[in-house]
Specification:
This protein is about 45% helix and about 10% strand. By secondary structure, it is of the alpha/beta class.
Length: about 300
Protein backbone atom coordinates (compact mmCIF):
# COMPACT_ATOMS: atom_id res chain seq x y z
CA UNK A 1 0.00 0.00 0.00
CA UNK A 2 2.77 2.43 0.87
CA UNK A 3 4.57 2.20 -2.48
CA UNK A 4 1.58 3.32 -4.59
CA UNK A 5 1.06 6.24 -2.22
CA UNK A 6 4.73 7.08 -2.54
CA UNK A 7 4.09 7.54 -6.24
CA UNK A 8 2.58 10.89 -5.29
CA UNK A 9 5.85 12.22 -3.95
CA UNK A 10 7.34 15.12 -5.86
CA UNK A 11 9.99 14.64 -8.51
CA UNK A 12 11.94 17.57 -9.63
CA UNK A 13 12.45 16.86 -12.27
CA UNK A 14 26.88 22.10 -25.71
CA UNK A 15 27.78 22.99 -31.22
CA UNK A 16 28.98 19.60 -31.97
CA UNK A 17 31.51 19.67 -29.16
CA UNK A 18 28.62 19.71 -26.66
CA UNK A 19 26.48 17.09 -28.41
CA UNK A 20 27.49 14.25 -26.07
CA UNK A 21 26.59 16.32 -22.99
CA UNK A 22 23.17 17.15 -24.44
CA UNK A 23 22.59 13.51 -25.37
CA UNK A 24 23.39 12.42 -21.80
CA UNK A 25 20.99 15.04 -20.47
CA UNK A 26 18.27 13.77 -22.78
CA UNK A 27 18.80 10.21 -21.53
CA UNK A 28 18.54 11.37 -17.90
CA UNK A 29 15.22 13.06 -18.61
CA UNK A 30 13.74 9.97 -20.28
CA UNK A 31 10.49 8.82 -18.76
CA UNK A 32 9.25 12.35 -18.03
CA UNK A 33 6.97 12.57 -21.05
CA UNK A 34 7.61 13.61 -24.65
CA UNK A 35 8.91 16.63 -26.52
CA UNK A 36 6.09 18.96 -27.60
CA UNK A 37 7.28 21.98 -29.59
CA UNK A 38 3.99 23.76 -28.88
CA UNK A 39 5.27 24.17 -25.32
CA UNK A 40 8.35 26.17 -26.35
CA UNK A 41 7.97 28.39 -29.41
CA UNK A 42 11.12 29.24 -31.38
CA UNK A 43 11.74 32.15 -33.74
CA UNK A 44 14.99 33.57 -35.13
CA UNK A 45 15.77 37.10 -36.30
CA UNK A 46 19.20 38.60 -37.01
CA UNK A 47 21.04 35.63 -35.46
CA UNK A 48 18.96 35.92 -32.26
CA UNK A 49 16.63 33.06 -31.38
CA UNK A 50 13.75 33.69 -28.99
CA UNK A 51 12.42 30.71 -27.06
CA UNK A 52 9.03 31.29 -25.46
CA UNK A 53 7.75 28.90 -22.81
CA UNK A 54 4.13 28.53 -23.81
CA UNK A 55 1.84 26.98 -21.22
CA UNK A 56 0.21 30.08 -19.73
CA UNK A 57 -2.75 28.25 -18.22
CA UNK A 58 -0.24 26.41 -16.03
CA UNK A 59 1.91 29.53 -15.59
CA UNK A 60 4.59 28.02 -17.87
CA UNK A 61 5.45 25.55 -15.11
CA UNK A 62 8.17 23.03 -15.87
CA UNK A 63 6.29 19.81 -16.48
CA UNK A 64 8.25 16.82 -17.78
CA UNK A 65 7.32 17.62 -21.41
CA UNK A 66 8.17 21.31 -20.91
CA UNK A 67 11.63 20.47 -19.55
CA UNK A 68 12.24 17.94 -22.33
CA UNK A 69 11.14 20.42 -24.98
CA UNK A 70 13.29 23.20 -23.56
CA UNK A 71 16.28 20.86 -23.57
CA UNK A 72 15.45 19.82 -27.15
CA UNK A 73 15.33 23.48 -28.23
CA UNK A 74 18.73 24.07 -26.61
CA UNK A 75 20.10 21.09 -28.53
CA UNK A 76 18.59 22.37 -31.78
CA UNK A 77 20.00 25.88 -31.47
CA UNK A 78 23.38 24.85 -30.09
CA UNK A 79 23.98 23.29 -33.51
CA UNK A 80 22.25 26.06 -35.51
CA UNK A 81 24.74 28.41 -37.24
CA UNK A 82 21.99 31.03 -37.56
CA UNK A 83 21.67 31.24 -33.77
CA UNK A 84 24.36 33.23 -31.98
CA UNK A 85 22.34 34.30 -28.92
CA UNK A 86 19.20 32.88 -27.30
CA UNK A 87 16.51 34.88 -25.51
CA UNK A 88 14.37 32.84 -23.10
CA UNK A 89 11.01 34.24 -22.01
CA UNK A 90 7.49 33.10 -21.10
CA UNK A 91 3.97 33.63 -22.37
CA UNK A 92 2.25 36.18 -20.12
CA UNK A 93 1.36 36.56 -17.34
CA UNK A 94 4.16 34.46 -15.74
CA UNK A 95 7.76 33.95 -16.76
CA UNK A 96 7.61 30.53 -15.10
CA UNK A 97 6.12 29.10 -11.92
CA UNK A 98 8.96 26.62 -11.47
CA UNK A 99 8.74 22.85 -11.62
CA UNK A 100 5.18 21.61 -12.07
CA UNK A 101 5.43 18.91 -9.45
CA UNK A 102 2.07 17.25 -10.04
CA UNK A 103 2.78 16.63 -13.72
CA UNK A 104 6.19 15.09 -13.14
CA UNK A 105 5.00 12.33 -10.79
CA UNK A 106 6.09 8.84 -11.82
CA UNK A 107 4.96 5.51 -10.30
CA UNK A 108 8.07 3.70 -9.06
CA UNK A 109 9.87 1.98 -6.21
CA UNK A 110 11.19 4.42 -3.55
CA UNK A 111 14.84 3.73 -4.48
CA UNK A 112 14.12 4.31 -8.17
CA UNK A 113 12.20 7.47 -7.30
CA UNK A 114 15.21 8.80 -5.42
CA UNK A 115 17.38 8.19 -8.50
CA UNK A 116 14.77 9.82 -10.75
CA UNK A 117 14.68 12.96 -8.63
CA UNK A 118 18.46 13.23 -8.55
CA UNK A 119 19.10 12.59 -12.25
CA UNK A 120 16.19 14.68 -13.53
CA UNK A 121 17.08 17.69 -11.40
CA UNK A 122 20.72 17.44 -12.43
CA UNK A 123 19.81 17.15 -16.12
CA UNK A 124 17.59 20.24 -16.14
CA UNK A 125 20.29 22.55 -14.83
CA UNK A 126 23.07 20.88 -16.83
CA UNK A 127 21.13 21.74 -19.99
CA UNK A 128 21.51 25.44 -19.15
CA UNK A 129 25.15 25.09 -18.12
CA UNK A 130 26.11 23.04 -21.19
CA UNK A 131 24.48 25.37 -23.73
CA UNK A 132 27.48 26.89 -25.54
CA UNK A 133 26.02 30.26 -26.53
CA UNK A 134 24.91 33.33 -24.54
CA UNK A 135 21.44 33.17 -23.02
CA UNK A 136 19.51 36.35 -22.19
CA UNK A 137 16.54 35.89 -19.88
CA UNK A 138 13.56 38.18 -20.54
CA UNK A 139 11.58 37.76 -17.31
CA UNK A 140 8.12 38.95 -18.31
CA UNK A 141 6.41 38.15 -15.01
CA UNK A 142 6.76 36.23 -11.74
CA UNK A 143 9.53 33.63 -11.59
CA UNK A 144 9.61 30.89 -8.96
CA UNK A 145 12.09 28.25 -7.87
CA UNK A 146 14.12 26.43 -10.53
CA UNK A 147 13.43 29.04 -13.21
CA UNK A 148 15.02 31.69 -10.97
CA UNK A 149 18.14 29.69 -10.17
CA UNK A 150 18.63 28.58 -13.79
CA UNK A 151 18.16 32.17 -14.99
CA UNK A 152 20.78 33.42 -12.55
CA UNK A 153 23.43 31.26 -14.23
CA UNK A 154 22.62 32.70 -17.66
CA UNK A 155 24.49 35.69 -19.11
CA UNK A 156 21.98 38.33 -18.01
CA UNK A 157 18.37 38.90 -16.95
CA UNK A 158 16.17 41.71 -18.26
CA UNK A 159 13.01 42.07 -16.21
CA UNK A 160 9.61 43.54 -16.87
CA UNK A 161 8.37 45.74 -14.05
CA UNK A 162 5.83 42.95 -13.45
CA UNK A 163 8.52 40.40 -12.61
CA UNK A 164 9.24 39.05 -9.14
CA UNK A 165 11.73 36.40 -8.04
CA UNK A 166 11.01 33.75 -5.41
CA UNK A 167 13.00 30.69 -4.30
CA UNK A 168 10.84 29.06 -1.59
CA UNK A 169 13.27 26.27 -0.70
CA UNK A 170 13.36 26.88 3.05
CA UNK A 171 9.56 26.93 3.26
CA UNK A 172 9.47 23.59 1.46
CA UNK A 173 12.18 22.14 3.74
CA UNK A 174 14.45 21.41 0.78
CA UNK A 175 18.04 22.57 0.14
CA UNK A 176 19.02 25.13 -2.54
CA UNK A 177 19.29 23.86 -6.12
CA UNK A 178 20.37 25.20 -9.51
CA UNK A 179 23.85 25.98 -8.09
CA UNK A 180 22.31 28.64 -5.85
CA UNK A 181 24.05 27.27 -2.74
CA UNK A 182 27.27 28.68 -4.22
CA UNK A 183 26.20 31.06 -6.98
CA UNK A 184 23.76 33.31 -5.12
CA UNK A 185 26.31 34.54 -2.60
CA UNK A 186 28.86 35.17 -5.35
CA UNK A 187 26.38 37.04 -7.50
CA UNK A 188 24.20 38.82 -4.95
CA UNK A 189 26.34 39.07 -1.83
CA UNK A 190 25.94 37.19 1.42
CA UNK A 191 23.01 39.13 2.88
CA UNK A 192 20.80 39.16 -0.24
CA UNK A 193 21.53 35.48 -0.84
CA UNK A 194 20.57 34.66 2.74
CA UNK A 195 17.34 36.65 2.51
CA UNK A 196 16.27 34.86 -0.67
CA UNK A 197 17.37 31.34 0.23
CA UNK A 198 16.61 31.28 3.95
CA UNK A 199 13.96 33.93 4.57
CA UNK A 200 11.99 33.42 1.36
CA UNK A 201 12.32 37.08 0.37
CA UNK A 202 10.64 37.77 -2.97
CA UNK A 203 12.32 40.80 -4.56
CA UNK A 204 10.48 42.92 -7.08
CA UNK A 205 12.14 43.64 -10.43
CA UNK A 206 13.55 46.89 -9.07
CA UNK A 207 14.84 45.20 -5.92
CA UNK A 208 16.34 42.40 -8.00
CA UNK A 209 18.25 45.02 -9.97
CA UNK A 210 19.52 46.60 -6.76
CA UNK A 211 21.01 43.33 -5.54
CA UNK A 212 22.52 42.40 -8.92
CA UNK A 213 20.20 39.57 -9.96
CA UNK A 214 18.73 41.63 -12.81
CA UNK A 215 20.71 43.74 -15.26
CA UNK A 216 17.88 46.15 -16.06
CA UNK A 217 14.15 46.70 -15.57
CA UNK A 218 12.06 47.51 -18.63
CA UNK A 219 8.49 48.67 -19.16
CA UNK A 220 6.47 45.52 -19.77
CA UNK A 221 5.40 46.28 -23.32
CA UNK A 222 9.00 47.13 -24.27
CA UNK A 223 10.65 44.06 -22.74
CA UNK A 224 11.04 41.99 -25.89
CA UNK A 225 12.07 45.00 -27.98
CA UNK A 226 14.84 45.80 -25.52
CA UNK A 227 15.83 42.14 -25.25
CA UNK A 228 16.18 41.86 -29.03
CA UNK A 229 18.26 45.06 -29.13
CA UNK A 230 20.62 43.83 -26.41
CA UNK A 231 20.92 40.36 -27.94
CA UNK A 232 21.79 41.86 -31.33
CA UNK A 233 24.45 43.98 -29.64
CA UNK A 234 25.89 40.77 -28.20
CA UNK A 235 25.90 39.20 -31.66
CA UNK A 236 27.70 42.21 -33.15
CA UNK A 237 30.27 42.17 -30.35
CA UNK A 238 30.89 38.43 -30.71
CA UNK A 239 29.92 37.84 -27.07
CA UNK A 240 30.73 34.41 -25.68
CA UNK A 241 28.82 32.54 -23.00
CA UNK A 242 29.75 33.42 -19.43
CA UNK A 243 28.30 32.78 -16.00
CA UNK A 244 27.87 35.95 -13.92
CA UNK A 245 30.23 36.33 -10.95
CA UNK A 246 32.90 34.18 -12.53
CA UNK A 247 31.73 30.61 -12.07
CA UNK A 248 32.86 27.97 -14.55
CA UNK A 249 30.69 25.35 -16.23
CA UNK A 250 32.81 22.53 -14.83
CA UNK A 251 32.63 23.84 -11.26
CA UNK A 252 28.93 24.50 -11.41
CA UNK A 253 28.13 21.09 -12.87
CA UNK A 254 29.89 19.56 -9.86
CA UNK A 255 27.86 21.81 -7.55
CA UNK A 256 24.69 20.83 -9.41
CA UNK A 257 25.46 17.12 -8.98
CA UNK A 258 25.96 17.57 -5.23
CA UNK A 259 22.81 19.68 -4.82
CA UNK A 260 20.73 17.20 -6.83
CA UNK A 261 21.67 14.35 -4.51
CA UNK A 262 20.85 16.46 -1.47
CA UNK A 263 17.52 17.45 -3.05
CA UNK A 264 16.56 13.82 -3.67
CA UNK A 265 17.35 13.00 -0.04
CA UNK A 266 15.27 15.96 1.12
CA UNK A 267 12.21 15.10 -1.00
CA UNK A 268 11.97 11.74 0.75
CA UNK A 269 12.58 13.17 4.22
CA UNK A 270 10.13 13.64 7.08
CA UNK A 271 10.57 17.47 7.22
CA UNK A 272 9.58 17.82 3.53
CA UNK A 273 6.57 15.53 3.88
CA UNK A 274 5.50 17.36 7.03
CA UNK A 275 5.92 20.74 5.29
CA UNK A 276 3.71 19.57 2.42
CA UNK A 277 1.11 18.30 4.86
CA UNK A 278 1.01 21.60 6.75
CA UNK A 279 0.95 23.64 3.52
CA UNK A 280 -2.02 21.76 2.10
CA UNK A 281 -3.88 21.93 5.40
CA UNK A 282 -3.30 25.70 5.53
CA UNK A 283 -4.91 25.98 2.07
CA UNK A 284 -7.90 23.91 3.09
CA UNK A 285 -6.90 21.09 0.73
CA UNK A 286 -6.74 17.37 1.35
CA UNK A 287 -3.44 16.38 2.96
CA UNK A 288 -4.24 12.71 3.58
CA UNK A 289 -1.51 11.45 1.24
CA UNK A 290 1.21 13.35 3.09
CA UNK A 291 -0.20 12.40 6.47
CA UNK A 292 0.06 8.72 5.52
CA UNK A 293 3.48 9.18 3.93
CA UNK A 294 5.07 10.88 6.91
CA UNK A 295 3.42 8.50 9.37
CA UNK A 296 4.54 5.37 7.51
CA UNK A 297 7.94 6.69 6.47
CA UNK A 298 9.79 4.37 8.92
CA UNK A 299 8.35 1.45 6.92
CA UNK A 300 8.81 2.51 3.27
CA UNK A 301 12.13 4.30 3.89
CA UNK A 302 13.70 0.85 4.40
CA UNK A 303 13.22 0.33 0.65
CA UNK A 304 15.50 3.26 -0.20
Amino acid sequence: MTIPILNHLLVVARGQAQHRCFHQTSVLLKGMGAVDHKLVFSSTKNKVTTLTMNDPKKLNGWSGPMMLTLQDRFLQHAADPDTKVVILTGADPYYCAGVNLASTIQPMHPKKLHTMIRTSNQAVFDSFLDFPKPILIAANGPAIGACVTSASTCDAILASEKATFLVPFAKLSIPPEGCSSVHFERMLGKEAARKMLEDGWKPSAAEAKEIGLVQDVVQHDQLMVRAQELAEQWVAAGKVKEIPAGGSVEEYKAVNAKESLELADAFLSYPFLDAQYNFLKSKGKSATVFMVLKTLRPVWSKLL
